[in-house]
Amino acid sequence: MATHVRQDPSRRIRFDEHLPVDHRLNTVYRIGAGLMGLVLLAFGILGLIDEVGYFDTRGDTVGGLNTNGTLSVLSICVGLLLFAGMVIGGNFASTLNMVFGVLFILSGFVNLGLLDTDSNFLAFRIQNVMFSFIYGVLLMTFGMYGRVGTALPHDSPYWRARHPEQAEREARQADRTRRAEGAGALPQGSRGAQGPRGEDAGR
Length: 203
Description:
This protein has helices spanning 24-49, 69-88, 90-114, 126-144, 157-162, 164-202, and strands at residues 61-62, 65-66. It is mainly α. The longest helix has 39 residues, at 164-202.
């Protein structure tokens, strides 16, 4: 008698061999990490090209945002990490997007309190604060897509991990359907194959 192993809903959710690498969730996570990483890389590289001092707070700008050498290097490092998430994809990219999204939002609040103080070593201005909020929300949206919500598709690994019993029932039903379709196709093929032999026998 066949036994079915019940999945532990507390297990680590991952993209496994049952989910193609071109699944739409994986694509969204990779595109999100890649695009957002590209923005930071461009910002950081342009800041370094302008040879802004590492702790300069005079107000040098790149794309309308204040910057200095420290912020440029930090932007490049974060951008490279997001590119790594794009390459790896899957659950890692999703989590990375969410983590950095939260960090950017927190950075916006922290630097908002540091404006016009001597501790503002990243040369933030109000436009940088707004960028941090918007950028953080976008990153979180990319990371949470298809992962957080009440109407997740049933082929999502996150839905399967949260509803292991129903996922198991649907998998068994799909397996029975495939077997029934395969069994229904066999007689037709068998008749087609036996037709010529029957005619030969008649001759």
